[in-house]
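re the bet — no i am not wrong, look at it urself. input seq straight from the record:
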Amino acid sequence: MTAPSTPETAANADMQTELTDGYHLVVDALRMNDVDTVYGVVGIPITDLARLAQARGIRYIGFRHESNAGHAAAAAGYLTKKPGICLTVSAPGFLNGLVALANATTNCFPMVQISGSSERHLVDLRQGDYEEMDQLAAAQPFCKAAYRVGRVEDIGRGIARALRTAVSGRPGGVYLDIPAAVLGSIMDAEAGAKTLSRLVDPAPRQLPGPEAVDRAIELLAGAERPLVVLGKGAAYAQADDRVREFVESTGIPYIPMSMAKGLLPDDHPQSAATARSLALKKADVVMLVGARLNWLLNHGEAPQWNPDARFIQVDIEAREMDSNQPIAAPLVGDVESVLDAIAERAKPGRIAAPAAWREELAARSAQNVAKMAERLKADPHPMQFMGALKAVRDVVHQHPETYIVNEGANALDIARNVIDMHVPRHRLDSGTWGVMGIGMGYAIAAAVESGAPVVAVEGDSAFGFSGMELETICRYKLPVVTVVMNNGGVYRGDDVNPLDDAPSPTTLMLAARHDRMIEAFGGRGYRATTPAEVAAALTEALASGGPALIDCVIDPSAGTESGHIAHLNPKGITVGNITPARK
């Protein structure tokens, strides 16, 4: 017969029961699924979550702004094929991170934003809680999926579902909402451990159908002017050997999108990047590998493209097919599986680019390379973008392990043309949205995830979006060298306000000293006015292995409005027609 319970025996039983809480369960779930780094900005109610994660062996990288932390998490996802984790506070902090979450989804980078939030019963009745907001509803339109954990025993399930959703199929951003009360809730530790799970095969291979593969093979085999376009999806897939084997075994010329540069070296004999316009205008069968016919490829429309071109598209998302042009041979599957299937089903020599087509593109490439070489020989004063970026290129060639992060308008466009890449996934830039502000976040993620040196080539306007993260770079002693193309303006620095002495809308400070910013945080600052000075500073900075910034003083008249996408500007007023105000 069991002895009756007394207050004393009940108290002793409670003392022997090990307890846990939501904070520990979040960290335990992340560790169980091999999350080793979290990016974020702390505050109510997630400060202790960051402290606990760090204490349990997860690396925590604290930022000065949530958007930059989110961009870092997104870049980490792209580089590692594992969801990058961004931790933010509620309401305003959540909204700051949402910018990066939406950008990650647009670029197909796996990322999970975990945010603390106010209590549902207060939010739903609009009772005015601290940072009250229905964050789940706000996030849903801008990400791949959004979930809320309402009970402490569901934390493990919520983490697992968010991680799987972010990385499976077409990768993207996922929002996970965890209210403060759930984080602070207590439960039996043994029971809590049973609620956690490790994901099994979160991103399974997706094989194309045999008939789809045969259809694509027939198209390629009958092409007179075939072309392969490699997108950042091909780089993300990390199927580098398969891509190289396919390109080289077929002899088909290829064009890499900017973040696919380095999948094959930019000086590869089959690269048609320097004959891009000719290749697009004349190709009759185009195979898109992890690339989308969006605005970056002119939607596949004439006159940039051959109006009679037929498209083969390799994409893991079936809904992407026919989004801009009819896809004659859709290949739905992951890049590696699709290329494996083509290799298995195509008879040796069945797909081969005609020699005349390859020779035509090679001749045009040689002409354009020679023209670029002549332009790069010039050394005008004041310094131009081209000279400064050639100096960066020459130094980086001596350090092939270096990652290049790049944003701006002219700084982005010209760097793409000048700085050639030879290693995959070592170029990170503004991507599908062309968003400014990714620079320091991407640079920090590249340094943290790889341990390799990073050179962030920034327009002075683009740098302003995330420049305070220089302090983060210095705090963590990261090997990041920031190169600011300083021409004193948005696009260029010589615009004039016709009415008064106030700066024009595109004018920044010509006398800005970005080099002194990093010196304030203990990093190395350099100021360069010639390409030789840029090269010397970058060489010394990379050798130091620590944080540095080079302020490259560029001619204020250098640059064009909106860079290479000026055609997207709406036609507006002519400034010269404005009548100055009377004084």
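see?? The chain is about 40% helix and 15% strand. told u. also The two ends are 101 Å apart (CA to CA). so pay up
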